[in-house]
Amino acid sequence: MESTMKEIRGGASVLDMDPKSTVGGGVEDVYGEDCATEDQLVTPWTTSVASGYSMLRDPRHNKGLAFTEKERDAHYLRGLLPPVVSSQQLQEKKLMHSIRQYQLPLQKYIAMMELEERNERLFYKLLIDNVEELLPIVYTPTVGEACQKYGSIFKRPQGLYISLKEKGKILDVLKNWPERSIQVIVVTDGERILGLGDLGCQGMGIPVGKLSLYTALGGVRPSACLPITIDVGTNNEQLLKDEFYIGLRQRRATGQEYSELLQEFMSAVKQNYGEKVLIQFEDFANHNAFDLLAKYGTTHLVFNDDIQGTASVVLAGVISALKLLGGSLGDHTFLFLGAGEAGTGIAELIALEMSKRTDAPVEETRKKIWLVDSKGLIVSSRKESLQHFKQPWAHEHEPVKTLLEAVKAIKPTVLIGSSGVAKQFTKEVVEAVASINEKPLIMALSNPTSQAECTAEEAYTWTNGRAIFASGSPFDPVEYEGKVYISGQANNAYIFPGFGLGLVISGAIRVHDDMLLAASEALAAQVSDENYSNGLIYPPFTNIRKISANIAAKVAAKAYDLGLATRLPRPENLVKYAESCMYSPVYRNYR
Prior knowledge:
By secondary structure, this protein is an alpha/beta fold. It has 25 helices and 14 strands. Strand 4, helix 14 (about 285-295) and strand 5 form a beta-alpha-beta unit. It starts with a helix and ends in a 10-residue tail after the last helix.
């Protein structure tokens, strides 16, 4: 991946430190949230000590009926609450019962967002304790529908909106955000939201959802997270005509106007928050995603979840699947449907891992990986007409027009879909892969569920129960001929929260490919024999905080090894250090 980016940026590496770009800065734990233990008393500061009615309206400090008698006296809450004193556990039980009454996932999403706006710790307590049930609500697939209807369900802003109107004033806009100690920014321009296309300003649901997972799954403090949408217009005619649309009503800005706005944004972020703030690019269109990652990879701490996060989680699944498939990574042949940012990113990381394991140059290991795009198999005869990020995958082969023909010609052991188009793994395609392999690995990664290349039921049925299947969004267990099959979910949420935590705790100032490989290997190592016996190639989400801590430790270790870490001295036990830095949603006692 870094080799591809180096080509785009003219040979520059993330390890080449430009003195002009490495200014000081970073964040600190201003309020003592990290260093105080859960049983220590903390002061509920806002701009002054929070109390009374304002305290009940502050989501960070509000505990609802869980305020003790002593706290009600000390903070002028008498009469503002009913007399009963409840526990956080009882509140959680009550809210989960309430949420489960809703029939539609979008209703549950709205209920969760409303909870976050009034009681932050209870929101994260619910999400952490019920992660497998609530993850599909606050993240994919429900967040996709939420973005489509964001204008209708919008109630209060949850992040920063930076539009073309703010050009020349972006630094001032950043200063309007009430928090000064920011560690992670997730930013989108809304042009390619999941598999749903251009949703413009309504793409804000993605940064909000991602950052809620940074906190719940990775333990990054909520106050250190900042969701941002950059609004340069939209080419979605339906939104432009929608009276409830909340963004700029104009066609998308491109070219120099777009580049100048992004340049101003990136410079302002570093100036305001320092060198060590992580900027995660999310759901940018292919043509911008690669250029932004290449341009800012050597000057900022940047990470593209669609390219790098997806690649890392899929590589982890492939590594763990080797125990079920047999053979080494270099023994397998990969065929991708989809050659965008996700597909090429995954392919490059697999090639890098293969190169690392076999000591073969990455140019050689790439030849084990084939990609199909909308025009057919990517081959050398098409090289001149290909976008730059597809060119490394143009191998010698006669032209092949369809996926089915490609399967028959290439004979892959692993079939991976990242096309964003539903139902592309047809019965004929899956049966062809199954005829070549005893245990075919099929990964239908496109989100949301409605856009998956095939369903879990189809994969198991068409392979007579022999497939090892994983998808991007969750599928229910499938019963086939008396046996229940539980499919894996190649969800980026396995990787990016722990990956980001590793960057934060090490004070890393750049992202390197070796960190992505370390994250993949750490995730694969968390799959137990019991998981394998059930056909799973990913561990259950119930252990996600432990998984994230292990990923963070491996990423941080690699940052120290590469000389990219600034938090010194290096902690002796990085796993324990990562766990000690994680945000706890348990209510605090106020003095």
